[in-house]
Specification:
By secondary structure, the chain is α+β, with helices and mostly antiparallel strands. Helix content is about 50%, strand content about 15%.
Length: about 110
């Protein structure tokens, strides 16, 4: 197996009864491919709130439950960046609208 040296830690958020990788998906995947069963991680402390809940739902909807689910989704860096940033932009816009709508509904219910 290939040895991974000096890999930045991945970022992980404790989310419900599982862990959600918030940064470092590809590093985690490459570590698994290299036969490693551990990787350095930093825990995100902001909690993520509703946005991470929506993100987790989006991943589940795309059948991405584990870094192993990235197997057939690895792309060249330039293609990855274009697709990832496009997806993030769309997701963030949709999530913002949804969260604003939910806040409006709660506000109306509390009047």
């Amino acid at each position: 197996s290939v040895e991974i040296i000096n890999v930045d830690p991945i970022s992980v958020l404790a989310f419900g009864n599982r862990f959600l990788i918030t940064d470092g998906h590809h590093r985690a995947y490459q570590a698994l491919l290299a036969g490693r069963d551990t990787i350095s991680a930093e825990f995100v402390r902001d909690g993520g709130g509703e946005l991470y809940h929506l993100y987790a739902q989006a991943c589940e909807g795309r059948k991405i439950i584990s870094v192993l689910d990235l197997k057939n989704r690895i792309l060249p860096q330039d293609e990855y960046e274009a697709k990832w940033y496009n997806w993030c932009d769309g997701f963030n816009q949709a999530a913002t609208l949804l969260l604003e709508r939910q806040a409006d509904e709660i506000d109306k219910a509390n009047r």
